[in-house]
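Example record

One chain of 189 residues, shown exactly as stored in the release files.
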Amino acid sequence: MSPAKCKVCFLGRKVKPSMSGFHLARREQKKLDLHRDFTVASPAEFVTRFGGDRVIEKVLIANNGIAAVKCMRSIRRWAYEMFRNERAIRFVVMVTPEDLKANAEYIKMADQYVPVPGGPNNNNYANVELIVDIAKRIPVQAVWAGWGHASENPKLPELLHKHEIAFLVPVRPCGPWETRLPPPSWPRP
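Predicted structure tokens for this chain:
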């Protein structure tokens, strides 16, 4: 492509547009508008329109730290793209005294928090019975356990299903053990 035809040129050389800021937001919005030929006002309308049977408006995040932050950011982005309201899905987070003392970012992002015991994770984020109890008490329609902690315990989805609470999980395998890839070979000294 000649410099005359480039959208952005610097000293006669082609320069790619910035991948941050206003340019990226405009580009992403164009992509969304091209693929979206419908409007949906709420999660309930979304479920009705697409033939679902369960409306999820409140999610318990049974994890902490960056895992919780990434989950909330992703779902809020999707909610904004789908409903034009990033707060269409509300979040309840579990919070230990250590998380409160650290003023963890995920607590600020949540709509509500539930204090849980501190200490090792079998007292809180890996405690399946505690997670299910909180999910029933609040109540929430879904639980996201992230990675680590209780997400690896098969008892969690079983108990949630028994109480008609959705268990949110990734749609693709996440690790080599799930894709049947051999473990990495380490160089020998």
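Notes: Residues 176 and 184 are 9 Å apart (CA to CA).
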